[in-house]
């Protein structure tokens, strides 16, 4: 299939899930960070994950979660991968992978080339690196519509597969793919009409612009 893989993150309703699948996105993200407007409860995700089964790869998004929290939410969702979006170290990332036996994505917050280089430390611990924009101190760790300087990705020399997040929308995702060659693009706020409210038309437009 043409174009990069696409993850629509922070999906919390059946309509948004159906639109994500219809637009041929490859991955859907369920947000398990309670302070986020995109948070979905284990009960909600259990229903959504069942609806998505066999149709799209289901990723659970966590921020500095302990094992009990991970176990509760992963058990409810029957998910395909874990995304760690906090300050998890390589050691903690490897621990999560060993404990839960699922592929682990590690988000690297980017401002400088040094941040890109940090991804190297996760080789052997994570299965996938997602480069995202660093948010201001005290803000949510993602979903803020912020982008980083894509040219910094030229500094990445790691062996791990990777994706691009941060401020992507239907208006700029084609340029992002052209400039970076990103194998996967990830959006959340870029396909919303309000914080946490996915817009089915924007989901379709994003996936079309990305080349799906």
Automatic annotation (TrEMBL):
InterPro entries: Aldolase_TIM (IPR013785), PRAI_dom (IPR001240), RibuloseP-bd_barrel (IPR011060), TrpF_fam (IPR044643). It catalyses: N-(5-phospho-beta-D-ribosyl)anthranilate = 1-(2-carboxyphenylamino)-1-deoxy-D-ribulose 5-phosphate. It is an enzyme of class 5 (isomerase). GO terms for biological process: L-tryptophan biosynthetic process. One of its GO terms (molecular function) is phosphoribosylanthranilate isomerase activity. Its EC number is 5.3.1.24. Pfam families: PRAI. Keywords: Amino-acid biosynthesis, Aromatic amino acid biosynthesis, Isomerase, Tryptophan biosynthesis. Coiled coil: none annotated. It comes from the Bacteria. Residues 6-208 form the N-(5'phosphoribosyl) anthranilate isomerase (PRAI) domain. Belongs to the TrpF family. This is N-(5'-phosphoribosyl)anthranilate isomerase.
